[in-house]
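User: I'm putting together a teaching handout on how multi-component assemblies are represented. Below are the sequence lines for each component of a complex, exactly as they appear in our records. Could you produce the 3D structure of the whole assembly as structure tokens, so the students can see both representations side by side? Please keep the chain order the same as the input.
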Amino acid sequence: MLFQIAEPGESKVKEACKPRVVGIDLGTTNSLVAHVADATPEVISGDGGALVPSVVHYAADGTVTVGREARARAVDAPGDTLSSVKRLIGRGAKDLEAMRSMLPYELHGDDRAVQLAVSGGRLVSPVEVSAAILRELKARAEAALGGPVEGAVITVPAYFDDAQRQATRDAGRLAGLEVLRLLAEPTAAAVAYGLDRGSTGTYAVYDLGGGTFDISILKLVDGVFEVKATGGDSALGGDDLDRAVATAVLADAGLEVAATRSEEAHLAAAQRRLVAAAVAEARRVKEVLTDAGEATFTLASEITGGTAIERTLTRADLARWARPLLDRTSKACRRVLKDAEITREELDGVILVGGSTRSPVVRDFVAELFGKQPLADLDPDQVVALGAAVQADVLAGGRQDVTLLDVVPLSLGVEMMGGVVEKLIHRNTTIPCGATQTFTTYADNQTGFDIHVVQGERETADACRSLARFVLRGVPPMVAGMARVEITFLIDADGLLKVMAKELTTGIEASIEVKPSYGLSDEEVERMLVDSFEHAEEDLAKRNLAVERVEAERILAATRQAFVDDPALLDDDVRAAGEEAMKKLEAAVAGDDYLAIRHAIEDLDLATKPFAQKRMNRAIAAQLEGIALDEAARKVGA
Amino acid sequence: MGSPSSSNVAPGTAAPRADAFALLGLPVTYELDTAALERAYFEKSKELHPDRFANAPAAERVAALSRSRALNDAYQLLKKPVARAEYLLARAGVTIGDNERLDPTFLMEILELREELAAARQAGRLDEVGAKQATMAARRKSVLDELPALFRQGDLASVKERLIVLRYLDRYLEECDAILDSED
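Assistant: Of course. Below is the structure of the complete assembly, with chains in the same order as your input.
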């Protein structure tokens, strides 16, 4: 075995003259730090082992504790003890709407970033909480290495989008670390495995952590690690299994927690404690079931507020509750194999990463999914940090025989007229990379271009993540279609995107304004600390209502216009159904239930489908006379 | 979906790039040895990757970044058969526009196929969608298999015709994927 756990202080002497750089695995449940000594990566241990629980406790007096000590407070002070914040980082209130009822603390904030309320009304952001964990790891490394840490490679789930990456970078900055690189977790794991075994071939890395799932396909040849494709779900992990187990056991005991909670703004303190205790117990039972065939789930009566729960759970119970979650991972696995243009038979092996893959339930599932026994001989909790340490060493000018070819996890594009996304760089393109495309104007005498940069696989901009908005000004007035604006996307080896725009026909240097809609400036960080968002819940409902109303008005207007334009294509029964549906939608718009509006929109859509179909068919028939299909589809607004 | 922020940008054309075959030191041919392509790419990557230059002076770092980017772009163009064929056509001055005319018989056929697909989706018959996808994948492969001979004969017009057909077949396959993805 090449990797060892270093005793504190052991490596002080030999590391005296190299720049001190480390690899950090900032996990949902646990974090750890590793470094390279004598060309060998090793994990840095502290009190209680190498793993630092990713838990931060905020006491009423302002004291902040991190790790094991903080985790011990999770049951008695769940609202002030923040765990699994990785699931919240770089995400806005809208992203988290589905999850918020399952979180044991209060969420505040807007669509760009959330904050958590802790003792004394203090609000902390996931970036700050992550920074507290990073600071702890940094201190631990500095104690072990005997001096300041000069740089760090921090790992992130491969499937993290730009906002999540940027927020992680901000956390590093806040912790006083120079972030040398954000490295994808499965890639880091593959590096550790590849170097340990001198492996060559094509491997799948199945990485199921506490709160995120990644699947990557990598080719390993002679020190080159090429990511062929990556995918996953940045909101799926072992935490979900704990909650599924807790919810099922509580429900069987007649304590319907999840069902009553989703509509409530804030959990009652007692209920919050019950959920936290049940989830903690579920985690413990899950861990026991890794080695044992059965385990007892117990909750005392003072926590349940009634009868105590004592129930024997088997591995089969766990497998049953885990199945829906694991099925979600198999979908991502199939897609990534397809993207890599490889079959599971062609894989040389499957590598398991992440604490959740310790469970035999998960291992059996992966073995069945890929048709081969997965590799797990390196500690799945440590392998990511070890790989990160190797990459840190490479970047610090240490070893030069490792080359990582990473990819863009999600497609990048610009929004065009009508809200459609034109992708410039497709997912799974190796970085660094670039793409240039020329665009033109839709309107006469247009002198400015709004360029909206988005990330994601969906076809419409509003379904993708908004990254930045540019305004290109100073284009001389021209007839529509004359101006030629060249948009260039450049991605560096860090995965950071730079976008440039230039008008070609005139050669005039036009100015560009960049307004990043993610990532926080220092002033923003400060302002967010000061501002309080007391009405976050109401704001969210208001926002949803506004969005649905706008959409409803748009659809009503479009439908009315279409009825006037094409009476010949409108059958009487369809007209009657359509008008009825429009009346219902108008009534819904007058109310203030955004879900009712959304449903009425869907009903109107269904009622007028035969009519829309006829219009579509006619537009397509136009194709036969020489109009392109794309153009025709655009004309009917499909 | 109506975005409140609809941008006033229309699609245009892609810009030319440096010669991909030359960058990788490979002969200009459709029938590339894919193992040789990968070997060449890995060797060049070891030399050019920006991580090699992380501590070099700024000018060298910038140069390494753009060389590495060009290398990756070249590999991207050559590694997939359709992209490689399109690139070879572009090199020969044959472009495929967005509004290419299609054989009406083919168009009618593809429209019918898409309607059947939509019907299968609405009825929730996912097995049928899967079967249609497999049939189409086989058809795509048979069209792709015609390309080497056409390139050898220098019949670029036919290559272009096949590539246009492939775009429609690929779009159909993507639709199958989307249906299967969202429904399971």
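A couple of points students might notice: The two ends of chain A are 59 Å apart (CA to CA). Chain A touches chain B through 70 residues (CB under 8 Å).
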